[in-house]
């Protein structure tokens, strides 16, 4: 059995799950938002009996102890019964639910794409950048700060129009594109003290979305230089010129080393190739999207993810037999 932890309607998950099921694989999908309001769980440890981790799904009760591989992708927060209203009770119920569900998943002992702890740590960009430099990747000049004077000095040194500012993570409640620092933004720099801001040297060139699945890389080149918003290719995917691309072998080795150091099986890596051929690393998203690149290039990324999960499940089954 392959366990998928994601939410309904996530198109990447839907595509991969359908491929696994067509290949005859048993897939059980759970949504963390169902616990505890819509889905029950019972975990038991009994003398002389195997550990059991039973959850209720739309298909019926399933013992997650049968999972031979897990896929952790774009999860949602737990939700409570609306009868639980007192703030202290809400905090307590959510904390208890997280302890039970997280512990249950971590106890399964199967291989994961990605391991949950590694996935959580790798979402932190300062860690990514530190490891990226250690494996030999090139980064743009970068400042993370809550000090307005440091922000002013960084911008003054590089020049207005040559620095971008961006958010650490894209959240639905407050999504923000990457923006160039313009003259009018200088008046707002005092607001940096309210929350950390990423400032980076603007790097012109062609964007690369590199999908790492296990030890393989699938690269799409997204040329947004002549679009209406070349600063952030996410804003102009439909305008960009998209095609498959090849990376230098030495760069591939460094990217795979980054994945290993971060403990990631899957990652969506963003880089930019400058006009003089330098490759600059921006970030790796442990749950990044690939469908937009797959649809425009024909790169078989969904199938690669499905195949790797199947390989992981087979390896997990062999490990159970050896025990």
Topology:
Layout (H helix, E strand, L loop, with lengths): L1 E4 L5 H12 L4 E4 L10 E4 L7 E6 L2 E4 L5 E4 L14 H21 L4 E2 L2 H7 L2 H10 L7 E4 L2 H11 L4 E4 L12 E2 L16 E5 L4 E8 L2 E8 L17 E4 L4 H14 L3 E8 L5 E7 L5 H7 L3 H22 L1
Parallel strand pairs: 1-2, 1-6, 6-7
Antiparallel strand pairs: 3-4, 4-5, 8-11, 9-10, 9-11, 12-13, 12-15, 13-14, 15-16
Helix pairs in contact: 1-8
Would you write up a description of this structure?
One of its GO terms (biological process) is SOS response. One of its GO terms (molecular function) is metal ion binding. Keywords: ATP-binding, Ligase, Nucleotide-binding. With 323 residues, this protein is α+β, with helices and mostly antiparallel strands. The chain folds into three domains: 2-110, no CATH class; 121-138 and 205-298, ATP-grasp fold, B domain (D-amino Acid Aminotransferase, Chain A, domain 1, 2-Layer Sandwich); 142-201, Dna Ligase, domain 1 (2-Layer Sandwich). The protein contains eight helices and 16 strands. The chain has helices spanning 11-22, 87-107, 116-122, 125-134, 148-158, 249-262, 291-297, 301-322; strands spanning 2-5, 27-30, 41-44, 52-57, 60-63, 69-72, 112-113, 142-145, 163-166, 179-180, 197-201, 206-213, 216-223, 241-244, 266-273, 279-285. The strands form four sheets. Strands 14-13-12-15-16 form a five-stranded antiparallel beta sheet. A four-stranded parallel beta sheet has the order 2-1-6-7. β12 (206-213) and β13 form a beta hairpin. The longest helix is centred in the last third of the chain and has 22 residues, at 301-322. It is globular and about 70 Å long.
